[in-house]
Amino acid sequence: MVLASAMSTSQARPVSTQKLSREEGQQVLVNQRLNRPVSPNLGIYKIEQTWFGASAWTRITGCVLSGAAYVYFTAYLASPLLGLHVESAALASGFAALPFVVKGAIKFALAFPFTFHFINGIKHLVYDLGIGFAKSQIKRGEAALWISSFIGGGYLAFGL
After folding, report:
1. What's the predicted TM-score (pTM) here?
2. Alpha helix locations (H) across the chain?
3. pLDDT digit of tens for each residue in the chain (160 aa)?
4. Which residue ranges does UniProt annotate as crossing the membrane (predicted)?
5. CB 59 within 8 A of CB 113
6. Which of 18, 93, 144, 149 yields a CA-CA distance of 20 to 30 A from 9?
7. What are the Cα distances from residue 7, in Å, to 1, 4, 12, 13, 14?
8. CA distances (Å), 107 to each of 26, 27, 113, 151, in order?
9. Distance in angstroms (rounded) separating the CA atoms of residues 141 and 138
10. How far from chain centre, in Å, is Cα 77?
11. C-alpha to C-alpha distance for 20 and 34, rounded to whole angstroms
């Protein structure tokens, strides 16, 4: 214990500095950047595996959902100033007057992104547990994700 208490806990590092001009300092930074890898290294990706995969569609559906919410809430907030009727009763009566096919298309256009984003979020929670990283499991999971999203979107649009 006496030996441990006698040891120094501060670090001593010999530091040497030298004066550099602004141009020389910039050249040092340029040379350091040349030795760094491009991150992420785009050569490792196979475009056929990542092009519009579930990851991209999760981002797209998230943007669609949040974008639609921002547009609606902004319209709801600005409607009294602009003389618009965006309250629930006006929207419900206007929606009821639409043809069945148009109603179904609107409801599915809102339901599909919601179900896709929700189910893919669950898939990523399963990934966080360390389950499902084999290539065959990923392919089956992607297929199940798309099928269940279309079924869930159809159920929300037409089944309720």
Report:
1. 0.65
2. 2-6, 22-34, 47-50, 54-82, 88-96, 100-128, 135-154
3. 676 666 767 777 777 788 889 999 899 999 888 887 766 666 666 666 555 678 888 999 999 999 999 999 999 999 999 999 898 899 999 999 999 999 999 999 999 999 999 999 999 899 889 888 888 888 888 899 999 999 999 999 998 7
4. none
5. no
6. 18
7. 10, 5, 13, 16, 19
8. 57, 58, 11, 13
9. 5
10. 27
11. 20
**Residue 100: φ, ψ to 5°:** -55, -40
Task: Specify burial of residue 61 (Cβ count, 10 A radius: 0-12, 13-18, 19+).
Answer: buried
Alpha carbons 89 and 86: distance in angstroms, whole number: 8
Query: Is 124 assigned to a binding site?
Result: no
- Residues in the chain, total: 160
Q: Phi/psi of residue 68, each to 5°? A: -65, -40
Q: What is the DSSP secondary structure assignment for residue 52, as one 8-state letter? A: T
- Rounded Cα gap, residues 139 and 135, in angstroms: 6
**Over the Cα atoms of the chain, what is R_g?**
28
The tokens describing 14, both together, are: 């010999």
Q: How far is CA 23 from CA 16, 30, 31, 44, 75, in A?
A: 20, 10, 12, 35, 53
